[in-house]
């Protein structure tokens, strides 16, 4: 191969990767409609695409310390045979190691992460236009994922709190007509420590306005974007 | 002539890569100084964000670049299908 063709191939590869990079954005965090395993899931993903896109855009631009994982969409509880669909968001919270957080008991860490990141996601999804009255949407699912404190930074262990909740109790909880303790008792909750399924944790939920008040120092919001 | 164009294009490519690396370093610096934890206590946030006296700016694109470079490498976790079903 000549030097000229090597240089050309290299240039093409670089330009192609730059172009691919330029197109990454909020839409890429939505699970494609055809990846939903049932017709009901696909129909919901298509119907609520604008709302999902809006949520993705909000997380992408306004909560840069969160990353949506495994695609925003309408999903199901694992192993359930009934096709109950939940508006679902899975977020990975990026946070630096912190001694105070590390010192908390596991259920306290999980409570803190869900209160901080999970509840705002529930709130956003519950506000999707039309979702409350839609009989095909059973509820909301939020997975919050973070690095297990003290794990190897070069191959960290991830911890995941997974919550599936029905629409009515979520609405009541968000409207404060249902206590957080009663709400937690009614949700399907599962905790994963690395590659192990731990099961239910006795979590608590408390008020945390972090996502609406915290501004990342030095972070420049893209021109034209507004966070509210 | 075609050879010159290819060489120039390659040089632009190298410059793009070098720029991406510099931005990643800046992001790494920014991130290493970002301490937040889920206690609900905002006063505990320590976000000294100085790099040699300057105040580095980070855009959403910088964060994307960093993540594309697979910041954490390989993680120990469950299969997504164990947590949620498509």
What does this structure look like?
Chain A is an alpha+beta fold and 228 residues long. Chain A has one domain. Chain A is built from eight helices and eight strands, in the order αααβββααββααββαβ. In chain A, strands 1, 2, 3, 4, 5, 6 and 7 form a seven-stranded mixed beta sheet that branches. Chain A starts with a helix and ends in an 8-residue tail after the last strand. About 7% of the residues of chain A have low confidence. Chain B is mainly alpha-helical and 86 residues long. In chain B, α1 packs across α2. Chain B is elongated, with a radius of gyration of 19 Å. Chains A and B meet through α1, β3, α5, β4 and β5 of A and α1, β1, α2 and α3 of B.
Write a brief structural summary:
The complex is a heterodimer of chains A (228) and B (86). Chain A has 228 residues and is of the alpha+beta class. In chain A, 39% of the residues lie in helices and 21% in strands.
Main attributes of the structure:
heterodimer; A: 228 residues; alpha+beta; seven-stranded mixed sheet; globular; B: 86 residues; mainly alpha
Helices and strands in order:
The complex is a heterodimer of chains A (228) and B (86).
Chain A: H1 3-22, H2 39-47, H3 49-62, E1 66-68, E2 73-75, E3 85-93, H4 99-103, H5 106-126, E4 137-147, E5 158-166, H6 167-174, H7 180-186, E6 188-193, E7 196-199, H8 210-213, E8 219-220
Chain B: H1 2-32, E1 58-59, H2 60-68, H3 80-83
Helix pairs in contact in B: 1-2
Helix tally of chain B equals: 3
Low-confidence stretches of chain B: 11-23, 26-53
Tally of alpha and pi helices of chain A: 8
What is the beta-strand fraction of chain B? under 5%
Domain tally of chain B: 1
* Terminal residue distance of chain A: 55 Å
Order of helices and strands of chain A: HHHEEEHHEEHHEEHE
Task: Give the integer mean of the pLDDT values of chain B.
Answer: 56
């Amino acid at each position: 191969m000549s030097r000229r063709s090597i240089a050309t191939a290299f240039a093409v590869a670089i330009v192609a990767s730059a172009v691919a990079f330029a197109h990454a954005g909020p839409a890429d965090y939505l699970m494609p409609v055809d990846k939903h395993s049932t017709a009901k899931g696909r129909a919901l993903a298509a119907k609520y695409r604008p709302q999902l896109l809006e949520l993705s855009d909000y997380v992408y631009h306004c909560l840069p310390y969160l990353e949506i994982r495994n695609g925003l969409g309408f999903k199901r509880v694992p192993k359930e045979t009934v096709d109950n669909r939940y508006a679902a968001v899975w977020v990975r919270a990026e946070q630096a190691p912190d001694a105070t957080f590390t010192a908390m008991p596991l259920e306290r860490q999980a409570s803190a992460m869900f209160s901080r990141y999970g509840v705002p996601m529930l709130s956003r999804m519950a506000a999707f236009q039309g979702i409350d009255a839609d009989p095909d949407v059973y509820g909301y699912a939020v997975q919050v994922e973070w690095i297990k404190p003290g794990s190897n930074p070069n191959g960290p262990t991830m911890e995941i709190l997974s919550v599936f909740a029905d629409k009515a109790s979520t609405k009541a909880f968000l409207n404060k007509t249902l206590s957080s303790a009663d709400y937690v008792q009614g949700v399907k909750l599962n905790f994963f420590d690395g590659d192990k399924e731990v099961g239910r944790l006795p979590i608590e939920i408390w008020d945390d306005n972090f996502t609406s008040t915290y501004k990342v120092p030095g972070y420049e919001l893209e021109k034209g974007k507004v966070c509210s | 002539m075609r050879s010159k164009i290819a060489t120039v294009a390659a040089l632009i490519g190298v410059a793009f890569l070098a720029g991406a690396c510099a931005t990643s370093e800046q992001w790494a610096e920014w991130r290493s100084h970002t301490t937040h934890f889920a206690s609900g206590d905002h006063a505990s946030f320590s976000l000294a964000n100085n790099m040699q006296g300057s105040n580095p700016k980070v855009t959403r694109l910088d964060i994307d670049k960093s993540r594309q470079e697979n910041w954490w490498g390989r993680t120990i976790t469950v299969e997504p299908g164990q947590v949620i079903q498509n």
